[in-house]
Amino acid sequence: MKFNQSVLICIAMPMFVFVSGFLFSYLLSLGKYNTWKELVRKKVQRILLPFLVFSWFFMITTGDWRPLDPIIQGTYWHLWFLPMLFWCFIIYYGFMKKLWLTIPLLMITLGCASLPKFVPMYIGLHNIHKWFFWFYLGGLVCQYHNVICNILSKYRLFLLLVSLYIIYAMVDIRAYGEDTWYATLGNASMVIALWYLSTKIDWTSQRVSNCIISFSTYSFGIYIFHNWVELLLLSNTSKRIFHLDILAANHEILFPLGFFLIALFIS
Fold it and tell me: Which one of 4, 128, 142, 185 has the lowest number of neighbouring Cβ atoms within 10 Å?
């Protein structure tokens, strides 16, 4: 449990946002989203509308009808991730061409990532200062990936990044949500190290690459539905009729696998 809460998820969640920023920067380099209007329209359609629709759907199907919560609080269960990403796209678009702000903004967002939430909650704004650092970092790595790779390779900095994370993990590793500037910096070291390691793999020669790419089309659906499926599987009805709580306790591998396959099928 400690390994999951202090290692895996503390790297995985930042990595998700990092990859989102990286891919967004890549799409911008290809000429996509030429105007603010185009960006906002598409992100409203692809992020905010699904956030609202599925929030209300989950409320109806679980008997938890609070229709204004997604707007006023900007979050509902695991779907908090969607409005947060929406604002990351919008804010990054405004700063992407201001090169003179790159280092100051990176330092400011690093500092803000460790602060308590203080921004109003409307439509997920309160999560921005906690997560924009990772999105911005991903965008910068995409923009300067050749320069960064050359520096890391020339000065053997990959081992330094891994060492920084190991030192942080040994001295004062923090659980998910217990953010400090050095926790963010430690996790960022590992995220950059993992990204650099991935650049050394020839993915075109890997047979599994096409499978992963094809499978990725279901990732959004899996994320949307996984928590809902989990609640249904462990509901009082499921416990009473199917005794799924006992199955979950006795089959630590089989039950999560079945849970995943159900979420995949619905997706």
Answer: 4
